[in-house]
Amino acid sequence: MARLSLLLLGFAVFGSLPAAETTGPDGRAQPGAAVGPLSYHGWTGALRMRNEQAEVIVVPEIGRVMSFRFHDGQNVLWEDVSLRGKRGDPAGREWINFGGDKTWPAPEAEWKTHTKREKWMPPPGFDGMPGRARRDGSAIVLTSLVDPFYGIRTSRRITLRGDDPVMEIETEYEKVSGAALPVGIWVITQFRDPMAVYVPAPETSRFEGGYFRFRDTPWPQLTTMQGLIKVTRDPAASHKLGSDADRMLWVGAKEMCLVATTRVAGAEYPDRGASAEVYTNPDPKTYVELETLGPLATLAPGQRIRQTNTYTLLRRREADADADARRILGRQ
Prior knowledge:
Blueprint: H1 2-9, E1 34-40, E2 43-50, E3 54-59, E4 64-70, E5 101-106, H2 111-115, E6 132-136, E7 139-143, E8 152-160, E9 166-175, E10 181-192, E11 196-200, E12 212-213, E13 222-225, E14 228-231, E15 239-243, E16 247-251, E17 255-261, E18 276-280, E19 287-293, E20 297-299, E21 304-315, H3 321-329
């Protein structure tokens, strides 16, 4: 990993970005989120984006979005508080699970082919090394180093939509070096332990019932109802499902978060054709993952692929979580 260490020496130190007003060509202030630097739980290079309703915090030192919340609400993303202020492990000794929102290359089954690592570890350029952040108007652009195994650099453009509680993240993979390879964009968002997670079963799904399970172990916390797949976290075991849906809903005690992306008709997807996945983690780390996948593409040097996720914060209105899910996802 000598090459990787040299790269990190020139990339691991960040200068904070000064807050600046968004202006148009005429010099007048334009609507958009305010962006400024802050120290966040021991990470000194963090950036905060705020509009009238919501706040997003990006931590380049660990290459993630770590917080998304209403101003008067809790962060809906899960964070491992025991790891605050720490760095990743690009040498690959262990995976450090900070939480938040990040991107990994799909398919996961091909990682060991490229990295030659015996144990499970995400490629370090995608998870383990710090990123570089820059301000682009009212957006934050978070760029990674080129992964030494995939030859891919990731770039994530993070915005808040006007004065709405809506975060958009456009994820781009750029193939910089090495042989052409098939890859897809996989976005993993870790959320706090929910009341429930809901996935709409597409009417013309490729999967029976609108989903498949990654393992055949019993999953008593998974139920289906009126065109919705509902899961809660099993404290005793991990579980995962895949679907060809284009959105998922996390429901907490007071707020909800709708995660949506576009599914491309006729495209080839990894994981048996899934574009949406839900993973639930057992105790003691009480989180769930809402994951989206983009189509597979063979990338040669100089080529790029992009995928956009939209995250919408919503207020709970019903006493019953199922009723709120039906209201948001349009299932009666």
